[in-house]
Amino acid sequence: MPKARLRVGVADFPPWSVPPSADVPYWSGLASLVWRQSAQALELDYEVKVYDIDGLIEAVARGEVDVAATGVPILPEHLVRFTFTPPFDQSGISIATRVHDQLTVANVLRRLASKEASRWFLGILMFLLAFSALFWLAERRRNPPIEGPAARGLGESAWWGIVTLSTVGYGDRVPVTKTGKLVAAAWMTLGFMLMTVSSAVVTAILTADRLRPLVSGPAELARVRVGVVHGSVGERYAESARLDARRFETFEEAMDALAAEELEAVVGSTTSLLFLAERVGDRRLTVLPHPLERDFIGLAVRFGLDPAIEKRLELEVVKAAQSPEYRSMRAVMMGDADAAVDGGPGR
Fold first, then answer.
1. Alpha helices in the chain (DSSP H)
2. CB burial class (10 A; 0-12, 13-18, 19+) of residue 58?
3. What share of the chain is helix, strand, coil (3-state, %, to 5)?
């Protein structure tokens, strides 16, 4: 097959295509690997042109480049402007956000006032009042601090119940009757269990709050600060949902803004968000497990490319996506992110 010189477009669009660096002095990434292996197998000669992702899609549509060597979603609006190789991976549209991390006074008070916590504390209060009343009934005629008017006696009994429950044990109110001692023994036993379980309940409530994402679904996006990348599927989603989103040039910039608490959510390519959340290493960053949309990824090809090259390229892309090198790179780049993917290699 004679060599053909192609114009190949690239963009900073991790994990599909990553610019050269001191450690890797060439364009790397999943789509870049697929292209390099395919071009080598076909002995293609090509020149590289660099765009942003939005400009690259436009360049393919206008015929300025022959192939976009990055991950382009196979969407209806793209198929009317250029064609694609067979898909070599999956992706979609997801929401990246932060989880609550700081246990500020306001956060603690808000969680302790939640329904689940309030029900538990109300239950303890009911037990406290019940045993205080039983203690007063047993002691009201033979225990001087408890004797006297009912209101005074119940108040003193409640004080005894609180001191006993907290295990402080001042000793200023003690039972003197057999019935009172039985009530006290029962309350001490039950109170110990209640306080032990209360510690676990409070810990669970505060831990759950720290793990709760700031945004739990698409319905909340209209009420928070959202970021998207120019020309990405996230921008398309934001426009269709009429979100007042802040635009960024790259996913790295958007995720940095999310980590810096300038945003509450970033909407974009599922795979890119998973990759960057893994690479940033900020434990507060998370990608919601249920994508807003799902799609497939291929190399974009301009209309009118030599059919002989195009057909051979389609075969080589499929072979490259199934190669051990591709699977190994994907595992390294995505870490454990694949655990959140349904039905196949990659999101």
1. 30-42, 53-62, 76-79, 105-112, 115-139, 150-165, 178-211, 233-240, 251-259, 270-280, 307-321, 324-334
2. middle
3. 50, 20, 30
Beta-carbon contacts of 60 under 8 Å, excluding residues fewer than 6 positions away, are 9, 67, 68, 72, 81, 82, 300, 301, 302
Exposure class string for 314-345: b at 16+ Cβ within 10 A, else e: bebbeebbeeeebeebbeebbeebeebbeeeb
Angle at which helix 150-165 crosses helix 178-211, to 10 degrees, equals 60
SS3 for 139?
Answer: helix
What would the two tokens of residue 162 be? 């609180």
**Residue 35 CB burial class (10 angstroms; 0-12, 13-18, ≥19):** buried
C-alpha distance from residue 294 to each of 64, 74, 83 (Å): 29, 10, 19
Tens of pLDDT, residue by residue, the chain (347 residues): 455 689 999 999 999 999 999 989 999 999 999 999 999 999 999 999 999 988 999 999 999 999 999 999 999 999 999 999 999 999 999 999 998 655 566 666 766 777 777 888 899 999 999 999 999 999 988 888 888 889 988 998 999 999 888 877 777 788 999 998 999 999 999 988 988 888 887 777 666 555 578 898 999 999 999 999 988 889 999 999 999 999 998 889 999 999 998 999 999 999 999 998 888 777 789 999 899 999 999 999 999 999 999 999 999 999 999 999 999 999 888 875 443 344 344 43
Instruction: Of 101, 94, 109, 95, give the one whose Cα is nearest residue 261.
Output: 101
